[in-house]
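can u do me a favor
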């Protein structure tokens, strides 16, 4: 008798302004795993949403220059953001909030005006993560004056990591959590690994001709400049801001995909590469992380042992 490997069960739903996808190797574990994921999503939304007037992030941003004690969940997200800033030499900086809002990204992307006629304000560099006063032991935070935090990217990646680990621990099943372009795995891996499609947009249908990769553990993150774009005063803007100039990073890479032990680390590296532009290849080589960069003209650069493209797959895309 031939034993067949069970096909992973999957559920997909909108969350955090993107798409949440949950796959499990044991279909009977789906209800418990989904409950874990939804709880994690609700918690990070309450703590870190830029678009909720009642979120903890909104309260913190309104209290700039005033010492504020934050919750454990917010502290974990802030720690992840500060670590990302340190590892990327400031290419990923949580103090870009003012710049992102000035560009017009001041509401959920679904509600964003695709053609905003308002003139662009004078660009200003981010306040700088080094100026944040933070005591992780007391969870006491003070932002520099006129500074707004944006924890979006690292907080979403952290949620993928947390949800995958907690769901696997609760069910014993293999788990894959994908939040837009941020993907984390935990527990037993399906035979042949999790097959992940690589694309500019995770919401588009997977094609047989598209590139794919097998993930046997850890995490994967894809950052890109093609999906979250809009026009402001006739200029095309995208959501990845260069903290050094307070404007969208100069386009060089269409997408950057990085594999790492955690989704936070993968997300940090992929976002930093978009910001670094022509410096990204050398910087990524120093990290030794497997990476795949796609230029604006479609040429592909593979680093750190990234394998040749294979076909077909599912569950990938950039944010």
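np, heres the sequence
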């Amino acid at each position: 008798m031939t034993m067949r490997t069970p096909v992973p069960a999957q559920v997909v739903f909108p969350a955090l302004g993107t798409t949440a996808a949950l796959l499990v190797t044991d279909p009977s574990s789906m209800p418990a795993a989904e409950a874990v994921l939804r709880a994690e999503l609700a918690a990070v939304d309450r703590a870190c949403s830029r678009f909720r007037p009642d979120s903890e992030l909104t309260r913190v941003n309104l209290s700039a220059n005033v010492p504020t004690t934050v919750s454990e969940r917010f502290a974990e997200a802030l720690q992840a953001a500060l670590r990302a800033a340190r590892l990327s030499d400031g290419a990923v900086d949580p103090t870009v909030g003012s710049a992102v809002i000035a560009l017009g990204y001041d509401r959920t992307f679904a509600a964003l005006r695709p053609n905003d006629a308002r003139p662009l304000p004078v660009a200003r560099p981010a306040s700088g993560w080094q100026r944040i006063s933070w005591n992780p032991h007391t969870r006491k935070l003070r932002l520099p004056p006129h500074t707004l935090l944006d924890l979006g990217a690292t907080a979403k990646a952290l949620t993928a990591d947390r949800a995958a680990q907690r769901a696997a621990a609760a069910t014993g099943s293999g788990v894959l959590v994908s939040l837009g372009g941020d993907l984390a795995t935990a527990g037993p891996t399906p035979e042949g690994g999790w097959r992940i499609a690589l694309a500019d947009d995770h919401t588009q249908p997977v094609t047989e001709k598209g590139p794919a990769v097998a993930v046997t553990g850890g995490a994967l993150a894809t950052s890109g400049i093609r999906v979250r774009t809009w026009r402001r005063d006739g200029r095309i803007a995208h959501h990845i801001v260069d903290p050094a100039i307070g404007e969208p990073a100069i386009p060089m890479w269409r997408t950057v995909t990085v594999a790492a032990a955690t989704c936070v680390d993968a997300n940090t590296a992929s976002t930093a590469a978009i910001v670094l532009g022509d410096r990204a290849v050398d910087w990524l080589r120093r990290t030794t992380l497997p990476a795949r960069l796609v230029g604006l003209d479609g040429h592909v650069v593979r680093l750190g042992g990234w394998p040749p493209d294979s076909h077909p797959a599912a569950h990938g895309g950039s944010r």
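The two ends are 43 Å apart (CA to CA). hope that helps!!
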